[in-house]
Design brief:
Helix content: 25-40%
Number of strands: 5
Radius of gyration: 22 Å
Strand content: 35-45%
Length: 137
Amino acid sequence: MSMAENQALAPASEGALDMDQVEYTLRKRLPRKLPKRKNDIYVNMKTDFKAQLARCQKMLDGGCFSEICIHGLGLAINRAINIALQLQGGSFGALQIAANTSTVELVDDLELDEGEPLTRTRNNSAIHIKVFHTLPK
């Protein structure tokens, strides 16, 4: 294969990088969170879905909260929506949901082998779903 054919087969994204990926270590910082209230639930992809759903159901059924707020970031958006819809579907019309979307700015640290670390900012989608009782308890 000729040099031109090799370059044609190479992904276009390789030439777009400013530095070689081997030269640095990527450290993702935790996102800046909303104020943590007792009725806030932050959904992630590491915890079991059934456990997160049971926690939400327990908070609503316990009588302490008439509403909860489910937050999902990035890949966890689908899971947050799924949890809210499962709660609503299992309540026989007693729960309603209201969703808001936003964009969250995240910061990554690029640690070089030599020299000062660099920071990079990027945006990620987020969802905030309020699940609340429509009928008085």
